Give the backbone structure.
Amino acid sequence: MTEIPADIRERPIILVEDDRSSAAVLRKVLERSGFERIEVTGTAAEAMKHLVGTGRTGESRAALVILDISLPDRDGLEVLRDIVRLNVPVIVYTDREDKQVVRECFESGAEEVFVKPGDLEVLIIKVKQVLVKDNMQRTLLRTTRRNQKLFLNILQVMAKTLEAKDSYTRFHSENVAKYSRQIARRMGFSENEIELIQIAGILHDFGKIGVAERILNKPGRLSEEELQAVQKHPAIAGAILDPIEELGDVINWIKYHHENFDGSGYPDGLKGDEIPLGARILQVADAYDAITSRRPYSTARSQDEAISEMIKCCDTQFDRNVVSVFVEILEEEQRKRAERKEALARSKGQRPQ
Ligand SMILES: [Fe+2]
């Protein structure tokens, strides 16, 4: 006999059945099997009300829905799909035996289809199995999310470690991550790739951990030898991060974020499409933040100046496509800022004295 953990029992089972006698029989069988929290409703509208009201974790309050798809107020399959979208498992309880309906129920996300009248003891076994499986999936999802958060936190700690050593990179990695994410989203990267480029942005200069502090914090120009030491940072990052398999493409994006489009960059002198797209994005984001921030060797320049500089260096340093996407984003933001300012000024002027 499958044991149901107490925390699942605390959440109600919603029984959506407009036939009162059938609902009463099923309720009794469920109660006899140890399920105390059963809520019965006869319509789709009411059923949806029973499902909302989320807890701390954002989950529906219901543990399971047993759904008769012949409902008086809405198409049962549509209701089934709405419930599945709320991440609540559904067992369809129906007297429509034809294969087409059963197939559609499964296609719409039902965990099980139980044809009436059937053996209700079998239905109870299915209820327990579905609840246990759903609980396992939720536990697994929570653990995965916790691990992902832990992984990201460790990466943040790594980036902060570098900031402690190189005071000028403070906020720089966050800015590069933000701009890279915006460009990647506009260029049609998937959500997963956008998350990866965010990580790459945060860690892009991590290799500076292997460069002497004296050089990193030196005010004024660097000697040729010092410059060579700084230019080792992408390759150092590549070597340090290489064993972290989970980083995948991120490692090469970081390793090649100082390659130039015409092949004049470092560490490997890659050219054009040989440079991974993620690296070309990081490079543009990195350059923009460097131009618009105050550095030991330069003052901060305006957005317009940074845009002109980036356009000037298209095809030599930067990928023209990446620059044009980023300029589009920056100009859109500029337009929105101006509109907000104008609206604010207008509302002030209109305010009654
Ligand atoms: Fe860098």
